[in-house]
Design goal:
- This protein is globular.
- It has 19 helices and no strands.
- The chain has helices at 19-52, 60-92, 94-112, 118-146, 149-161, 163-178, 181-189, 195-202, 210-217, 222-232, 250-270, 275-293, 299-342, 344-365, 369-384, 387-393, 400-430, 436-443, 446-453.
- It has one domain (20-219, 248-456): Up-down Bundle (Growth Hormone, Chain: A), CATH 1.20.1250.20.
- The chain has 467 residues and is an all-alpha fold.
- Helix content is 76%, strand content 0%.
């Protein structure tokens, strides 16, 4: 790939990037897009799917707990898959492992459409997440190894920001399929009222087609091939040995990586994803005010109004999801350029402090549909943007022989540590009397812990990848 060029020598980061390198970025990003879609389709359908899989007597608190168990299972599955496939990618290569992870999450997302009980859906979320966690670890290492040093922060941010499209696709599915009154009317008519959300999950099989492109176009990075050759020589260090992450100077780096990702994932699933509900709550409040001021309606008029409100609220919920995600996408894109100027540590600090402030403002400080809608992109920017830092920073912490293993362990081991936070969030709402806003606000204080960990974090700005 040629020599590394310092970003301060006046050379644009994209200068000299080859067609093949761009293609790798596109393929990795598409894998991540569909990766995120498989996760977010549950978020887009959780108000429909889970209530239909439990008894009619189940309370809102119980449904919230089951949803959080499913989300927690997703985090645990991501941990298992990310660590497993990260090790596998160091041993058998990035190309084959990337194809395997995409096949894994596509198959089990599609299979989720056949769920008949809440625990079926929760179990499938675990299996989907195994592929999701593995894909991110492999694609992140692949992108970092294919691009030169001067471009890593920028392409890492672009790669992770592509996740926005995955959420947008989930939003489209939420409006056009899950919340489509025509599809729902047909489903009711044929006696399968759960058909809309099941179709949303069934669409998850489509990413499997990406495997054909990967197998035809991608080859193993030269740095991985060189590391494999060294490992095969007598006395060479072995590839993908997870115990090596906790030896010597790598132990501190592993602690920093896992902790940063734990904070990011716990606040993502415990705070960020509920940003869309702030707009929904504001709209529901307005609906209630309008109903209180309305005149007496006939039974038929009441039924029609409730039906319109049901699908109207779904559109508002998806609008909230879109606004938060769009702001988050801009935040992800900005992490790379900001970190090239300020350094990785200061950029993480900016996003952590901003995430805390924006969460408290959204959930506790502002009211009204217009005010909430205008603030949601800012909330998304500050609570999601640091996730691009994981794709940029984690590959810079480890040598090639451990890059997939270390990157996968940091991001996906954090899923396992973050999972209990979701169970706690469900219990807070069911048993402890917290509102959703209150639980999301309290969990946002985890960002403070993230700022403290930065005291131990090494600065990697401008450094070549360790070999």
């Amino acid at each position: 790939m040629g020599r590394s060029v310092s970003p301060t020598d006046g050379t644009a980061w994209y200068h000299g990037i080859t067609r093949y390198q761009w293609m790798v970025l596109v393929i990795a990003s598409l894998g991540w897009v569909f990766d995120v879609f498989e996760g977010q389709i549950f978020v887009a359908s959780m108000r429909e799917a889970m209530p239909s899989l439990v008894s009619a007597a189940a309370t809102e608190g119980a449904i919230a707990l089951y949803n959080n168990i499913a989300l927690g299972g997703f985090l645990a599955g991501g941990a298992a898959g990310g660590i497993l496939f990260g090790i596998v990618s160091d041993r058998i290569g990035r190309k084959r492992t990337l194809s395997l992870t995409i096949l894994f999450y596509s198959f089990f997302t599609c299979l989720s459409s056949l769920s008949q009980a809440w625990w079926h859906l929760a179990a499938f979320r675990f299996l989907v997440a195994m592929g999701v966690g593995g894909e991110w670890a492999v694609a992140t290492a692949l992108v970092a190894e294919v691009f030169p040093q001067r471009a890593r922060a920028h392409v890492g941010g672009i790669f992770h920001a592509s996740s926005v499209f995955g959420t947008w696709f989930a939003v489209v599915a939420g409006i056009a399929v899950i919340g489509n009154p025509t599809i729902q009317a047909y489903a009711d008519r044929v006696g399968v009222p759960t058909l809309p959300w099941r179709l949303g999950f069934a669409a998850g099989v489509l990413p499997a087609l990406l495997i054909l492109w990967i197998r035809a176009s991608v080859h193993e990075p030269e740095s991985w091939q060189a590391a494999r050759d060294r490992a095969q020589q007598q006395g060479g260090q072995k590839m993908g040995v997870i115990g090596d992450l906790f030896r010597g100077g790598l132990a501190r780096r592993t602690f920093v990586g896992v902790t940063l990702a734990t904070v990011g994932l716990a606040t993502f699933w415990g705070t960020h994803i509920y940003g869309k509900n702030a707009l929904l709550d504001a709209v529901e409040e307005r609906y209630l005010e309008q109903e209180a001021q309305g005149e007496e309606l006939s039974e038929a008029q009441c039924a029609e109004m409730l039906e319109q409100r049901r699908f109207g609220l779904k559109r508002w919920e998806m609008l909230g999801m879109f606004l938060v995600t769009t702001g988050g996408g801009i935040g992800l894109l900005c992490f790379g350029p900001i970190s090239q100027r300020l350094g990785r540590r200061k950029t993480f600090l900016f996003y952590h402090l901003g995430g805390l402030a924006s969460a408290l403002i959204l959930f506790q400080g502002i009211h009204g549909v217009t005010n909430v809608a205008l603030f949601m992109p800012i909330f998304g920017f500050l609570t999601l943007g640091m996730h691009a830092g994981y794709a940029i920073y984690f590959p810079e912490l480890y040598p090639t022989r451990l890059r997939g293993t270390g990157t996968g362990f940091c991001f996906n081991g954090a899923r396992l540590l973050a999972a209990p936070v979701l169970f706690i969030s469900g219990w807070m709402q069911r048993d402890w009397g917290f509102s959703l806003d209150g639980a999301a606000s309290l969990l946002s204080f985890l960002f403070i812990f993230g700022t403290l960990v930065l005291l131990l974090a090494p600065e990697t700005k401008g450094q070549a990848l360790p070999e």
